[in-house]
Design goal:
globular, alpha/beta
Length: about 160
């Protein structure tokens, strides 16, 4: 339900959703910290996203493939729950957790197309000499339906707090 704001216009109760790829890397931790604080400051929501690449299990026998898929899912769930606790610590927000099966970049685009409440994708750039990272590089060349915030992966906690 929309309520009138001070100017008499309708204000939306839709909360801005910050989508973060959660892969357990130090750069991902920076992006999660930034998104958590931005969400807190703007009354937003954080969504932690990961994808399980089926390519690793596709060549296995069916029984082995099923066990490997279950193990990969359990590992992804464990990681997301650990990172969700960090989001809660940073910002007092319990994030939405999403696990998809498929190539990360493909599943990320599909998720954004499916969930119209995603407002901003937050990524952190790689810190190595080989460029900003594979996901940033992959997404940079595509037209993207939402804003993408790329946070330097080398930021300190203090710098993240100041920026967010």
């Amino acid at each position: 339900m929309n309520e009138p704001n001070v100017t008499g216009q309708q204000s939306s109760t839709k909360r801005r959703k910050f989508l973060v790829v959660a892969d357990g890397t130090p750069e991902s931790a920076i992006a999660i910290h930034f998104a958590s604080l931005r969400a807190r400051h703007t009354n937003g929501i954080v969504t932690l996203f990961t994808a399980i690449d089926p390519g690793e299990t596709a060549q296995q026998w069916l029984g082995v493939q099923k066990i490997m898929r279950e193990e990969a899912r359990a590992e992804a769930e464990s990681l997301l729950h650990k990172l969700a606790a960090q989001v809660n610590e940073y910002a007092g927000i319990m994030p939405e957790l999403v696990i998809r099966e498929g190539r990360l970049a493909d599943e990320l685009v599909k998720f954004i197309e499916d969930d119209k409440s995603v407002a901003i994708l937050v990524l952190a750039s790689g810190t190595g000499s080989d460029g900003p990272g594979p996901l940033v590089s992959t997404l940079a060349g595509k037209g993207f339906p939402i804003p993408v915030t790329v946070v330097p992966g080398s930021l300190s906690e203090e710098a993240v707090r100041e920026l967010a």
